[in-house]
Amino acid sequence: MTRFDRTIVLKTLAKVCLFTAASIAAIAQDTTLPPGPVTVITQAEYEQMVQEGVKFFPVTPAIRAKQSAQRLARYDQNQAVLADFIANNPNLQDFDNMVESTPTSSNVFELPDGDYFTRIPKTKGGTQAIETEGQDSVLQDVATSIQASSDPVRELALYKSLYSGYANLYGEFCSPTSAPNPGCANLIAPSQLVNPSQLGTGSLAAIKSALQTIALQGPNIYKILPVNPLGSGTVAPSCSGDVGENLTLTEKYYGDQTLSSCNKPNAEGILANFSWPYENQLTCIKEQGQRGLCHIFASVSALEQLIARDTGTYVNLSEEDFDENESLVWNPSFFHDGGNPQTDLNNAEKNGYFFAYENQWDYNPSLSRTRATGFLYSCNNYPYPSLEPGCSDTTPQAPEYCVPVSSTEYACYLALAPLSGTRSPYLSNGAVSTFDPSLLESDPGFNSDIVIIELATNNAVVLGFKLTYFFGNDVDSGYVWANCAGNGLCQLADLLTSEGGHVVHIVAFISNEQLAANSATSSIPPDPLGLGYFVIKNSWGTCSGDDGFYYMPAGYLEDRATGIFVVNDPTD
């Protein structure tokens, strides 16, 4: 069994601590002034701010070493979870190899924080830089999935949720008093499923068996839903009019819709040819720029969908403020962008965090960062401090203050950005894992079927997966191509071209039958598992994919998924 080389991680984390003596290491306590925007304050001003309630977070070599050590310890724990899982499931060697693979494409470069840098073509020509997640973030997704799917309590809670949602839909569309619905003939009545009350003391195997039975109903329950969407042939939803949006920016260099100006759906794409249930609950495509915050963007996108579903209000929430709290306060990681959406949302729930609006802190895409400079130049072309409440050459981009301790040395700190205006009333209620890697070979399509049920019951689903070349590099369509053959799992033609991890928001499902019946899409290769394509709302702007959307065959999801998370209803 090939194991990921721990020495690679050690070297990577060492680089996180050291970078270069002349640049990144300058951000430290008792050192010269760091690069990027810094506010120099006196000791008296520092003490006054502390008395006023400002919490300072020192940025020192010791703090950075501690954070790196914590990441390494977490990596070791997660790799041990995976190793134990593979030892007990030796038939899943392909899954192990996929998870442990490092990028082999010549198009991918490792960044100092362990994430990866690549470029993808844009639909209007040229390329755009993308940061993908490193191995530690991927392993966090996988370990979370393994632990959740091995826990009878969590699996029973998942089954109860699926059973309730299925029974409600069946009762609404397939009861004797409902309008005739031909799709109901292909469904089994909830009374034929195992009632969750019968599983209260059941074994994990019994719960998984019940999950597998209800999962098979996924594609058929999705078919009975009425379509009440924006309408096929439309461009991606606009943020205009969303509560908290900020479309008055004249600079093209910042905001979560940076450079989003390619609204022209592909003639053979799903967006131009199909409507789907709940399509009208989506907010607009966002763009993460040259930062590895896909986990933040996917989480916020899912929350915005649920808020529209529950309240009828369309909001634009601040990814910048959410990330600052996660990477500065709850899960300190000053120089590492990757993360886990479940951790993000659960931390927000535990800390009673009210999401800010985008116009309280507009996103900084940090377009001047490069693979050669790491976090340097994050604030170039960003209007801090004139218009925005914070920015620094760090992951949280919190404002940085430095206090002179001698004629040449400074003690430097980060502090939460002081937002003006009133935050939104929306709180996170966490997220739950649904991905079960133990069934990848024995029940191909199980995880996709569960996602389809979650979509049918109008829940928000976030997917973590390992990118391959074919995700993002077909500029003409948005389709993620898979060339599949053989024994259950989809064997992808680009299996060995791993390009790091990514996190996206799944918003819909279109079946093979629907694609084949539409003259515009009949030539699209069917999903090899016999299911169809998931519609992905991505965070690379509308100049990527099909107006910002991607279409992923179920076989690709089954072969590349590292985590699937259902976002719980936000509270207000």
Mean pLDDT: 88
Assembly classification: single chain
Give the neighbour order of strands across the main sheet.
Answer: 8-13-9-10-11-12
Main pleated sheet: 6 strands, antiparallel
Shape: globular
Cα-atom Rg, whole angstroms?
Answer: 24 Å
First and last CA, distance: 49 Å
Structure class: alpha+beta
Could you estimate the helical fraction of the residues in percent?
25-40%
Order of helices and strands: HEHEHHEEEHHHHHHHHEEEHEEHEEHE
Q: How many distinct beta strands?
A: 13
Low-confidence stretches: 1-30, 229-233, 484-495
Put simply, the count of helices is 15
Structural commentary:
- The protein is of the alpha+beta class and 572 residues long.
- It has a domain of 256 residues.
- The chain contains 15 helices and 13 strands.
- The strands form three sheets. The protein has a six-stranded antiparallel β-sheet, sandwiched between helices.
- A hairpin with a 5-residue loop joins β3 and β4.
- The N terminus is likely disordered.
In brief, what are we looking at here?
This protein is α+β, with helices and mostly antiparallel strands and 572 residues long. Helices cover 32% and strands 12% of the residues. The protein starts with 5 loop residues before the first helix and ends in a 5-residue tail after the last strand.
Q: Could you give the topology of this structure?
A:
Layout: H1 6-18, E1 39-40, H2 43-51, E2 56-58, H3 61-88, H4 93-100, E3 109-110, E4 116-121, E5 127-132, H5 135-149, H6 152-173, H7 204-215, H8 218-223, H9 270-273, H10 294-311, H11 319-330, H12 341-350, E6 400-404, E7 410-415, E8 431-433, H13 446-456, E9 460-466, E10 501-511, H14 512-517, E11 532-537, E12 549-553, H15 554-560, E13 561-567
Parallel strand pairs: 1-6
Antiparallel strand pairs: 2-7, 3-4, 4-5, 6-7, 8-13, 9-10, 9-13, 10-11, 11-12
Helix pairs in contact: 1-3, 3-5, 6-7, 6-13, 7-13, 10-12
